[in-house]
Design goal:
CATH superfamily of the largest domain: NAD(P)-binding Rossmann-like Domain
Protein name: 6-phosphogluconate dehydrogenase
Largest sheet: 7 strands, mixed
Strand order of the largest sheet: 2-1-3-4-5-6-7
InterPro entries: 6-PGluconate_DH-like_C_sf (IPR008927), 6DGDH_YqeC (IPR004849), 6PGD_dom2 (IPR013328), 6PGDH_C (IPR006114), 6PGDH_NADP-bd (IPR006115), 6PGdom_BS (IPR006184), NAD(P)-bd_dom_sf (IPR036291), Pgluconate_DH (IPR006183)
Structural class: alpha/beta
CATH topology of the largest domain: Rossmann fold
EC number: 1.1.1.343, 1.1.1.44
Number of strands: 7
Pfam families: 6PGD, NAD_binding_2
Helix content: 40-55%
Keywords: Gluconate utilization, Oxidoreductase
Order of helices and strands: EHEHEHEHEHEHHEHHHHHH
Length: about 290
């Protein structure tokens, strides 16, 4: 299979490489001439055989809107456009309508795995018509972790379902990181009693009910910077957490833990705190997100 990939940043660039390792031919386009395979979108269309599968991996919001519009100007009837970025699920209906007006098929896919996905594989949550998801199956199989498909991929439902599932995933992620971070702050506060905070977390990595990849990443961050002295406790939120809470409000679903984790990030922008340093360190570890140096 030969596909086009638009957006070759931290995620997109690694995805291009994993797809190629998995036997999928990829022609990538990015405005950065240092990473792009072709000079522009018309050249991308010329390189990929029809019916084309074009996957976009760009920031959500206005950037995605612009890329979708520009791609639909050069794509042909019968092509399939997949948005693999972190778009809000309500945007998918609008983009699908735009695509349908040009005879272009549309699907969405939530992607999790961060900068580690190149070697470990990505968790994939797809939304769209069954035939379109089946058409893209070789791409999903190359990107997901090795093993049974159900352990790294789901066709979650119709258009928008993939991004909705990824939104909820990220809301849960917020709460899990916050719990680890608050535990770190409490352990660090009792330096008179706890002499090896990193060792405590390391001891939890096997055999305990709180073992997880996020815990592993926190141990890695603490080994690199035991007191997290090089990180400012300022934490951004990328949108999905807010959208999750908004959905909870709209559907009267109680979400005290996830909601509290969002508000904790707002607190981090007002004062430095050990727990927010831990959250910032975790985001850097799994996603390569920028941190503010202390």
């Amino acid at each position: 299979m030969h596909i086009g990939l638009v957006g070759l940043g931290k995620m997109g660039g690694n995805m291009r490489e994993r797809l190629r390792r998995g036997g999928v031919e990829v022609t990538g386009y990015d405005p950065n001439p240092a990473v792009t395979d072709v000079p522009d979108l018309p050249a991308l269309m010329a390189a990929v055989p029809a019916p084309r599968l074009i996957w976009i991996m760009v920031p959500s919001g206005k950037v995605t809107d612009s890329v979708v519009t520009d791609l639909l100007e050069v794509m042909d009837e019968g092509d399939l456009l997949i948005d693999g970025g972190n778009s809000r699920f309500v945007d998918d209906a609008r983009h699908a309508e735009q695509a349908a007006a040009k005879g272009v098929r549309y699907a969405d896919c939530g992607v999790s795995g961060g900068i580690w996905g190149l070697d470990n594989g990505y968790g994939l949550m797809a939304g769209g018509e069954k035939a379109d998801i089946e058409f893209a199956a070789p791409v999903f199989d190359a990107l997901r972790p090795e093993g049974p498909r159900a352990e790294g991929f789901v066709h979650a439902g119709p258009i928008g379902a993939g991004h909705y599932a990824k939104m909820v995933h990220n809301g849960i992620e917020y709460a899990q990181m916050q719990a680890l971070a608050e535990g770190y702050e409490l352990l660090a506060a009792r330096s008179d009693l706890i002499h090896d905070v990193t060792g405590v977390f390391e001891a939890w990595q096997r055999g305990t009910v709180v073992r997880s990849w996020l815990l592993d990443l926190l141990v890695k961050a603490l080994k690199e910077d035991p007191g997290l002295d090089d990180i400012e406790g300022f934490v951004e939120d990328s949108g999905e957490g807010r959208w999750t809470v908004q959905e909870a409000l709209d559907h009267a679903v109680p979400m005290p833990a996830i909601s509290a984790s969002i508000f904790a990030r707002f607190v981090s922008r007002q004062e430095d705190s050990p727990s927010m340093k831990a959250v910032a360190a975790l985001r850097k570890q799994f996603g390569g997100h920028a941190v503010r140096s202390a």
